[in-house]
Amino acid sequence: MSPRNPNMESSVYEGNDGWWHGRVTMGVKDDGSPDRRHRRARTETEVRRKVRELEQLRSKGRAPKAGRKPTVEQWMTTYLTDIASLKLKPRSLDDYWSKTRNDIIPGVGKHRLDKLAPEHLERMYRAMLDAGHAPSHVVKVHRILSRALKIAHRRRIIGENVATLVDPPSVDETEANPFTTEQAKAFLKAAAKRPNFMRWCVGVGMGFRQGEALGLRWSYVDFDAELFHPQWQLQRLTWRHGCTDAHACGERLHRFEPCPPDCRTHKNYKRGCPKPCPKTCTSHASACPDRKGGGLVFTRPKTKKSTNPVPIPPPFIPYLHAHKAEQEEMRATAGDEWQEHDALFTRPDGRPLDPRADWEEFKDLLAEAGIDDRRLYDGSRHTAGTILNELGVDMPTIMEILRHTQISQTRRYVKGRSHLSKDAMRRMGDHFMPQPEPATETRTETADRRAARALRRRRIR
Fold it and tell me: How far is CA 280 from the centre of its chain?
């Protein structure tokens, strides 16, 4: 009888099925039973290589947990539901879910985590680019998937994060297109005809984000110290089911077949026909009778720096008082229909402005002012940073006004102007190059002195 192998020593043998088998003791399972892993191959050399790999993981303390590994779809659902939801802001979590449902699960969702290879991710990214997605969108998907795989690796569900072995597409940074000073004045002149004129003054003149401007409340306006305290922002969040069976709740709204080419049902949809529902669809939460957590919601800003007080330009103060008086008249006119939210910028019934309607008004003002189309950020936050730079304000001060956490971020918001560059280079040239001597007045007749005439006669001789 052969002696028994020592504890933790691996065994390699040829089985009756013609395969070579290797068994490695990795430790103890959660229930206390031995964690014995199995590997097999056609040759002894190959199975011994696999056994050595397991032994190396065991010695480094990086051995993955025992049991069948989840698929990418299963792990992403677990990650977003139980892990990411504890840290991410609601809007960020909605974005993670959207990219997971629309890109990650259809692309690599059926692969087991331990079988996922870099080639699978590269093919998915290539397919996304061919389908018309921007490289920046693909990079966001890559970051979400990489973060989820990093957590899986940290918890020893997998032995390696394969996303770190893949280079996502290169992304060209979006070129800022802020207003010039003349365009900003034309834009505000057009906005002066609107009820919420001060909303655009706050955006263009102070660089507030859209959510921060729409989320401003009178309780956080300090007229004495002339300060805004941006403690809240207004965001539109996705509704979530409050019922126990989300799939059954939206049963009447499920559509598993794509729309025909001549679809009339969704002809007025700006984004076209919606995509067909997956077989296990849990969407349509907006129709749930127990829906929760969606619609227009006041939320806290993303970072602590974003809540820093911002000085109000003194010329804005009289206009703010006038705006408050007009809002009081609107409240009296609405009567019982007024819904009090303490917001600076409201609809006629007191509700906060809808971000979608605010965006549409921005586009209308661009057309009215004769300005070419651009992003809302270009016309507000980028414009404020660029004009402050033109006025000679230093970068640390602009960073404090825009409430950035890093000055490198502020530099991306400030765009140089060509006329300022020309003026700077003119001053550089004046500093280094000698100035031409000024022209002097010449006389046709000069009165030579007696000594000069005598010297000239001697030279002639």
Answer: 29
Strand partners, 27: 35
First vs last C-alpha separation in the chain: 136
3-class state of residue 140 by DSSP: helix
Torsion 190-175-377-367 (CA) sign: positive
Instruction: Write the single-letter amino acid at 275.
Output: K
- Assess whether pLDDT exceeds 60 at residue 30: yes
Four-CA torsion 414, 415, 420, 426, nearest 10 degrees: 100
356 contact partners, CB below 8 Å, separation of at least 6: 236
Token readout for 143 is 């970051």
Radius of gyration over every alpha carbon of the chain, rounded to an integer in angstroms: 35
Residue found by looking up tokens 């102070």 in the block: 206
CA distances from 342 to 196, 229, 425 (A): 15, 14, 50
C-alpha dist (Å) from residue 375 to 59, 175, 354, 379: 54, 11, 17, 7
Mean pLDDT of the residues in the chain: 86
Please report, for residues 38, 148, 275, 455, the alpha-carbon distance to residue 113 in angstroms, rounded to integers and kept in the order given: 18, 11, 27, 105
- What is the C-alpha to C-alpha distance for residues 251 and 255, in angstroms, rounded to an integer? 9
Burial environment of residue 273 by CB neighbours within 10 A (0 to 12, 13 to 18, 19 or more): middle
What are the counts of helices (DSSP H) followed by strands (DSSP E) for the chain?
Answer: 18, 8
Phi, psi at residue 233, to the nearest 5°?
A: -135, 150
pLDDT recorded at residue 447: 54
Q: For residue 231, which of 293, 294, 296, 298 has the smallest C-alpha distance? A: 298
CB-CB contact of 241 with 290 (8 Å): yes
Sign of the dihedral defined by the CA atoms of residues 33, 83, 146, 142, in that order: positive
348-381 pLDDT, tens digit per residue, is 999 999 999 999 999 999 999 999 999 998 999 9
Q: Return phi, psi of residue 38, to 5°.
A: -120, 135
pTM of the model as a whole: 0.72
